Amino acid sequence: xxxxxxxxxxxDDSSTNNLLLESAFKSLNFxxxxxxxxxxxxxxxxxxxxxxxxxxxxxxxxSGYDVLDAMKKDEKLAKIPVIFVTARNRFEEEQRALEIGAxxxxxxxxxxxxxxxxxxxxxxx
Length: 125
Prior knowledge:
Blueprint: E1 7-11, H1 15-25, E2 31-35, H2 38-47, E3 52-55, H3 64-72, E4 82-86, H4 91-99, E5 104-107, H5 112-124
Parallel strand pairs: 1-2, 1-3, 3-4, 4-5
Helix pairs in contact: 2-3
C-alpha cells in the first residue's frame, strides 16, 4: 500500500449509493475511489492499487458476479477482497456470491456499522 493509506473501491451504477458509502467511510483513513460500472471498476483496478472492493451485483453491462469472475482470473486482482453490497436479498444469491469468492455479502438497506466493521477487519488482515 502506498503511504499506508488503503484504497477502497466503491462500485455501484447509482452515484447516490456511491455517495452514501463514500460518506460512511470518509471518516476512516481510506482513499475512496468510485466506479459507476463493472467495466469502469476493471479499468480502475488495472491502473491503481486497490485493497478492497465494495461491489453491487445488479449493474448494466458487467454484473458484480462478472467483475468478481474477471478478478479471480487475473493474477494481479485475484487476492483483492470483495464485499457484495446489493439489493438482492435471496439466500441463493448470497450463497453464490460466497461460493465464487466474495469475502462477504451485505444486503441493502445496509447496516452501515456492521459493514464498516467488516471492511476494517479485511483491511487489517
